[in-house]
Each structure stands twice: as C-alpha cells, then as structure tokens.
Amino acid sequence: MYRYIIVFVVLFQSYTVWADGLNRLDLAGEWKVRLDPEDVGIEHGWAGKSFETSIKLPGTTDDAGLGTVNTLTPALAKPQLSHLTRAHRYVGAAWYTRELSIPAGWAGKEMILTLERVLWESMVWIDGIAVVQKQRSLVSPHEFDLSSLLKAGKKHRLTIRIDNRKKLPISVDDMAHAYTDHTQIIWNGILGKIAIQAYDAVRLKSVYASSNLAKKEINLQINLRNRLAKAVVGKLKIKVKDKMGSLPPVERTIQLSQGDSAINLNYLLGDKLKLWSEFSPHLYDISLELKTADAVSTLSTSIGMRELSTDGTMLKVNGEPLFLRGTLECSIFPLTGHPPMDKAGWRKVFVTAREWGLNHLRFHSWCPPEAAFAVADELGFYLQIELPIWENNLGKDEGVMNFLYEEADRIMQTYGNHPSFCFWSMGNELSGDFNALNALVKYVKEKDKRHLYTATSFTFQQGHGVKEEPYDDYLITQWTAKGWVRGQGVFNSEAPTFNKNYSNSLEGISIPVVTHEIGQYAVYPNLAEIKKYKGVLKPLNFISVAEDLKQKGLLHKASAFTMSSGKLAAILYKEEMERALKTPGISGYQLLDLHDFPGQGTALVGLLDAFWDSKHILSAAEFRQFSAPVVPLLQFAKAVYTNDETFKASIDVSNYGQEILKNQGISWFLKDAGKIIAQGHFQSAIGKGHQGNVGHLEVPLQTVGQAKKLKIQLKLDGTSYENHWNIWVYPQKVAVDFGEVSYTRELEEAMHLLKEGKKVLLNPDWKKINGIEGKFVPVFWSPVHFPKQAGTMGLLCDPKHPVFADFPTDNHTDWQWWDLQIKSTTMITDQVKGGHAVVELIDNFANNRRLASLFEGTVGSGKLMIASFDLEADLANRPVARQLLSSILTYMNSTKFRPKVIENPAILSQVLRYKEAQEKSEPKAIY
Hints:
Largest sheet: 8 strands, parallel
CATH class of the largest domain: Alpha Beta
Shape: globular
C-alpha cells in the first residue's frame, strides 16, 4: 500500500515574538516570594500583600535555596541511587509578587500576561482582585487577560500563585519527564519570558502558515482580532526574506469584521523556493504588517519549506528516503533541573548530537520550549514531540483525557508550525483504553496535518505495540508479533553474527518502523563527573558509589570500570544501530541514550555524560562511522575464525545522504595491527536508502599462523565515510599441552593436589557453582530500576598479562568473549584474601563486589588457576575456549606463573559451593 502525507510547516510565534518595546512590559527581575505548603494564602488574603523573601524570576525556588533542605547521606540504597538529589525541594503552592507601573499610553489596549513555562497551575491577582482564568499546562505558556484590572498610568501589585503539585494521574511513579524528579525536577517558579504585552483594538493575532511544494508557495491563514464596535478596513503587507535577501512584498486591502476572523493568502516563491531538511535547513522570514486608520500591528514568523510522507514502509522528506538517527531528550539538565529557555542553552544539545552523527531527537513524555525548536529549525533536526503522559490506565480518567486534548491544542498552537516538529507521539509506553487513545490521535491528526503521528512510543499492553494502530503513520516498537527489532533480545541468546537483520520480525507491518529505545547498556559511573555538579542537584548517587568503592579498596579501579564497561556498550550500540540500517522497513532508531539518564535508578547508559560531554570512551568521529547519513556496512557470518577458513563478506551501503553516489569507488582493507595483509577495490552505483550486496570480498586465512585480532576496514573513496569491524583468527591446530599442570573439576581434588605442590587448573562445572549468571551483555538500563537481572558490566583484564600471550584481547569485553561469557558463572571473590583476578568482571554499582571468571593464587606449596567458564566441553567446535585453554596452560607451565598467595584458601569452598543447575534468564524477565 502506498501512503503519502503532505505536512505543512511554519514557525508560529504569536507567543514568542513581541511587538515593539513600547508595547511590552518585561517583568524579569526581582520579585518577592512566600511558600504556602498548608494552602492558607487565599483564605488569608495573601494576594494583596508584599512578602519579605526575594527571588529572581525567571527562576525557581531551588535556585533561591528555598524549600526542604536535603539531609540524606550517601548509601547504596533508594532514594540515593534513584536519581540526582535536590539540594532544596519544594512541592506546593508558592506566591510571587511585585509592583508594576502601566504606561500612560496603554489606555484602551488589550493587556495579556504571559508566563512562558510553569509547573503545573497558575493563578493571578491584580491588587488583590483575582483574575478568573486559572491556567494549567506543563508544556506551553500560561496566559492571562488583565485588561479589565490594569489601568494606564497607574501602579499595581501583581501576584501570581504557582502550585506545582500533581493535579492529574499522568505518570507511572512520577516518571514522565514533563513532571518528575528523575530528570528535570518538580520545580516551582516561572521560566522563560514573563511579560505583559499591550495590543491595539485591531491587530494581527496569529498566523498559520504552511508549505505547498507542488505550487512553490507559502499558504497563510492570518488570524485577526477587531475589538471595535464596527468593521474596519486595513492594508496588509507581507514581506518575505531569506539569507539571500528580500523577496517582493505583497499588499492587500482587507476588511476586518467585529471579533475574531481569519483570511487566507498565498505567497508565491516560484524559483526562489529552497527546501528545508537536515542537509539544507533553509528558513524564510515572514513579516506581516496591518495598518488601519488608528494603529499599526506587526507580526513576524519563519517558515521551513518541507514535506514529510510515507511510502509503504519508508519515511520520506521532500520525496527522498529518510532514516531517523535519533536519541532521547528527557529534560536532563543537571545544573538547573529544568530545560534551558534560551537558544544558547539548546545549542550544546543539538550541536553535540549532530557532531555524533544524529539527525533526530525524541522528547520522551514532554514537549520542549520554543528555544529548542528554534535551534532545531536552524540546524535541520527532525524532532518527535510527546504529550506529557506515561500512564498505564489511559482513557479511564476523564480529567486526564480532557487535559491531554487541551495540551494537544496548546502544542499545535504554540509550536506546531516549526519545520523541526516533524513527528508526534501521544506519549511513552501507553496502555489502557486504546479506543480512547486512537480517538485522540484521530483528533490531532485531523486538526493539524503538518506532522506524522503514532499512538504511542511502544506499549507493553498485550495485543498492541506489535503492529500499527488505525491512525498511525509510523510504528515505534521494540518487538513485533514475529520477534525482536532490537538487540536486547538477541545479543545474549544468539552467537555473534553480522549478517542478520530484523526483516523476519517486520512481516505483516505495512508502515515505517522506528526501533524503540535501543541500547540501554549500562556504563559504570564516571566518578570524575562529581565535581561538575555545581547547581541545584547533588550527585549523591555518584558520591555513594565513590564512598563504597573507597571503603572496599576499589576506588583506584573506578576509571577503568567506566572505560571498560563503556567500550562494551559502544560495541553493542554499533551492532544495534547497524542491524537497523541493514533492515528494509526500518526507518530509524531512537537510542536510549547517547547521553546519561541520571534517574530511574541512575541509568548511566550514555557514551556522553548528563552534561552532553564525552566520556572519551570513543570519539565522535568513531561513532559517526556507524551513525552518519552514509554508512558503509559489512555482512559476515561470525566474529571468530580458524586459519583453515576463508573470510567472506558482502558489502552494503546505507545511503540517506544528499545524493546518489554514481560510480562510487569502494576500498577495503584487512589489517593486522595497522599492517595491510589484504585489500581490494571496486566501483558501484549507490542509490538512496539501504543498498544491499554492492560488493563482495573473500580472504583465505591460511597465512595467519598465530592467534590474531584483525580489522576489516571499508572506505568510500573521496568521502569521509568509512567503517570497521574486528575479527579474531586462531590456528586450527592448537597445542593443548597440560605439561606440569593438573586439571580437575573438583575443588576437593584441587586442594589435595595443591598440598602436593602441584600446579592445578581448577575448572568447575559452571552450571552448578554458586555465583552470578554469566552474560555477554551488561546490565540493562539500571541495576536499581531493574534488579531482576544478572548484574555485571563486562570484563576487565590486563592484555599484557602473560596468560594472554597466545590469546589476543583488549582490556574489555569484545565479541570473541561471547562463548566464554555465556558458558560461565561469575565467581564472587569478596572474601578471598590475596590471589589475583586475571579476568575480572565489573560488578554493577549497586553492589560493587569483587568478581572474577579467571583467578590465580598460590596455596601452600602449590599454584592454582580457577576458571569459571567452560574449558572442557566440545573444544573441537569451540576455537575460543580451545585457544584460551592453550594460552593458560602455556603460562602455567612457564616460570612466569608466580601468583600471589591466597591467605584463606578454605574460603574457596564457599566461593565454589554447588547449587542446582543454573537456568539462563529470558530477556523479558527483567520486567
């Protein structure tokens, strides 16, 4: 089925673009504030009084140091590990007041007070008299008409009551990011613009502009207001300019009837038309001027000319294939606890995201302020906005549904025309009454055709989420009825392979799919980050981990834990993203996350920290190799080979760049520590979208005589696009010479041999010994939020240790460790005194235990090596285990095998005590 949806786009700025300064009263500055936790303010007439405590607005009570002072001390427990900690917390009513003078020239004008962003409810009084317009919104400006109470040339007292308490059940455990302490905080105050705007009786009220690419014109619906008791005639002038200069103006004489009205006008761009996209975010500035006999009204806006559509299972922008390379933005701003309200604050976010190759941000269960859209417009980002809800009982509360409809209307009116506002989901992982949810989608889709829509960003509700809902333009999911579309359900249960995609899982899906929150691979806390928290939030979670490590004598390893776990996360993110790129029918991914998520159990899943700064796990340039508009891809069967095999691979290219690559040169190289051992070159025409099997390579591996880690590198000649992968090659014929080493699977026998002064390799049955389930993938999301999971974060070892002389490895987990990790149980070695963990497993930060899967030590006159991964079964078909066993034995038979003394060897009976055979956990078991 072919779908085509034209989305009309413009910046709508009636709330954010003001008339000349003479008609605008800026109220930013010093106010007085009084907290009202017991709600006595209205009863006792606070609205007409001044208070003693000063506060700067825009700002929050947290900024002012008001509220309950935090008294928590560091601990590996909740709430310390739940999220960052507010230094001062206030949730309740707070009153803000100041005096103001109304200019004498404002007589007869309409006077509108705007508070750009408030949580959750606001009420206003003038000189103690209430304005009967209580406002509720989490995502758009609160507005009050003060015309009847303000007198020109007079002084007045303006009092605003802000109540940030939860008004409606919009969120599971208060985790929706529009209202939460997990990312942005539940702040009290006023953010952004605080001003009174004076309007003449006849004025331009707002403009709805849309793009018509077929006719090369801007369509304008201009909304007017006439408060006079008669119709009037006015002259309307439209000016358009872009960075190249001004275009010819258009003038019309119009008649304004009484009250509110609208007219439709078109502005022809013709050959001046330039499109808006990630590659060319071209904007047109539009100025409207309305002159009547008594007044002049102006309004300005901008427009980006673009059309979004779907073609079967493909997203398109301006008729070209579109792939969303996205991450989430969950209002994570650790210094302030709230989003920036200026463009400068958002440039860090978008410039960094672009540097790392992305073109898309999903705003999880919230909508950002005007400044975010403005920066995204300028840089060419495709944004997904969500209503402020994450709820399991949607549709069962009439008040919630009414609120969502109202918030949807406000989002449309306030932000809906931005060219960057491309996609709209009703909320995060919604469940409940899907009839009510689909009715909401139908409503917004019929009312505003400028975006593409989906009912929910995934759902766990049975019978939903696995296929599209009736009004979906695209589907966001992590699995379908046919299987997973993200690595969480794949990478631990299937041996590493790099020639698979998710096509089988997409059977029966007829619209584009965007993969939901892929990644979520936990990285150990970067304790060097603690010093960066100089604002209203304190990193008690990080401090708790640091103090625990210090107490356990592990603090010196913290940076290595971060780097090693981060390298594993990066490896998994790469394969996750590349599988999506290799799958026809997938039109994008949404990472969770490129940067850290400090809430929901301290979910440090990013390669960047919560400040959008790199952790230096890998560079932006390295990440762009698999996240750029054009990505060279390689399809090959496995990570590990023996030298009697031939490495075979086919080459794909994911081309969502600006142009078709005609007769493109592609070079490939097979390298051993930088030395080229094989290479090739060919030409190919590379069209748009995923282009499969554009080339092929074969390399016999017989010349690789020793165990090696090799790198395969692809380059698109004459471009910056390249990519690389590691493979491991081992000799087919490996000497497994026990020599002086005694091998046993029983601790009792090992202890007997050690008493005789033997060298002993103890390899107990991993399925039976006590410990932690061996897994290849690290902690999912957070060990605090999801405690029902095996809790390690990858291995840490010294590649220069002589045990690895014939087993090349980095100091972190990579694909060649998969078989060993899966067929293992991690030993808990906290109580062992002495010895040395040769292969250490990084414990999750909620426990910080000493863990190992390869441990050496001297016991009496004997020398011991304990391996808790399988070095016995089916070695003929397990080249990695065979190679590691050979390397271990070579080391143990050498004079270099001089391990530290184990001071309490009797404790090994507890470390290795048997239990019932271990069952592997299912990926969904964590939920």
